[in-house]
Amino acid sequence: MNLYEIWFSRVKLPDEIKNQFLDTLNTPEEIWEYVKNEGCIKNKTISKAFNSAMNTEEINKIIDVMGVKGINYVTVMDERYPKKLISLPDHPFLIYYYGDIEKVNDLKAVSIVGSRRCTVYGRDSAYEISSGLSKHSVNIVSGMARGIDSISHWGTLNNEGFTTAVLGCGLDTVYPRENKRLYEEIKLKGCIMSEFPPGTPPFPYNFPLRNRLISGLSDLLIVVEAARKSGSLITAGRAADQGRDVMAVPGSIFSKNSLGTNELIKDGAEIFVDMEHLLDKLNIISLAKNDNLKKVYNDIKMDTIYNILTDTPTHIDDIIRITNIDISILYELLLEMQLENTIRCIAGNYYVKINGSL
């Protein structure tokens, strides 16, 4: 663990300003050497922020907690850093994490947010969407809050999918406490991350900062239920600013929890229609379409095999050479064709055509 990296992450300045220093001076250690030279930084507020963060006692406490609790971290200089965040001008320099952070870069991601006091309709919608996407290897990102967040995480985990929880506190704090089991499941099967160092309580002002990462990590943000002036609408606004697509689940005009989502749709957010529509939006072929395509491809391959066979026995090696079909797939196709009584296998791995057509 690098003392300078943790120091730089603790500097209480806007990330845009810190990133400007990093662009110029390359590493936190170089920035610290620059800061130590009196007069280099004319702005007293910035100078004070850099110097006050260099509290070695507090930094060593963080390092100790990380060691005891097995907390990892990754900086923007590391190739494992979430790539979708790099495009944000206010991306954090350092992210603390549990779990498989490399998979965050490997998968498409959809963020799902919504009301903490959700309705049955909202619960069912969030679970249906998250479970459906997880079957197509989509990373479901949310904030592990009560309501829609938690349901979205569970919908993914219950279908053996991968999910990422972004916290508004240190990783050594489970918030809300009722989500202890969910926290442990995501830690084991997904990824939990936070820009806040261990020991940081869930202060209310942390959550708007956290929300920019929830939207920033996604290819698409879905708002399931949201009242007017809710945190989910703030996240949707950040997503739009970040160039992410925003989708909303429509709701009853009589439900307060749908006022925010319906207004999002009125203002231009895409409406969630069904899973097929969502998968098309993400350029993902659904499992049903996959099955249909597989049948079409197999029919074409069986036509090819049938057309090269005659009444004269043809050896399996010659079929492989002519059709260029992988042997494991070829054996399946040949078996199916025998069951359909269109070809016959004779001794020595030779095959002949049975008169007729496929």
Question: Could you please say which CATH topology of the largest domain applies here?
Answer: Rossmann fold
Strand content: 5-15%
Cα(first) to Cα(last) distance is 66 Å
Shape: elongated
Helix content: 40-55%
Give the helix/strand class: alpha/beta
Domain count: the total is 3
Query: Helices and strands, in N-to-C order?
Result: HHHHHEHEHEHEHEHEHEHEHEHHEHHEE
**Overall CATH class of the largest domain:** Alpha Beta
Strand line-up across the major sheet: 1-2-6-5-4-3-7-8-9
- Separate helix tally: 17
Low-confidence stretches: none
- The number of E-state strands comes to 12
CATH architecture of the largest domain: 3-Layer(aba) Sandwich
What does this 3D model show about the protein?
The protein has helices at 3-10, 15-25, 28-36, 44-53, 56-69, 83-86, 102-106, 120-134, 148-157, 180-189, 206-216, 231-241, 259-266, 275-281, 287-308, 316-323, 327-339, and strands at 72-75, 94-99, 108-113, 138-142, 163-166, 191-194, 220-223, 245-248, 270-271, 314-315, 343-346, 350-353. Strand 7, helix 12 and strand 8 form a beta-alpha-beta unit. It has three domains: 1-70, no CATH class; 99-281, Rossmann fold (3-Layer(aba) Sandwich); 287-353, Winged helix-like DNA-binding domain superfamily/Winged helix DNA-binding domain (Arc Repressor Mutant, subunit A). The chain is built from 17 helices and twelve strands. The strands form two sheets. Strands 1-2-6-5-4-3-7-8-9 form a nine-stranded mixed sheet, with helices on both faces. Strands 10-12-11 form a three-stranded antiparallel sheet. Helix 11 (206-216) packs across helix 12. The chain is 49% helix and 14% strand. By secondary structure, the chain is α/β, with parallel strands linked by helices.
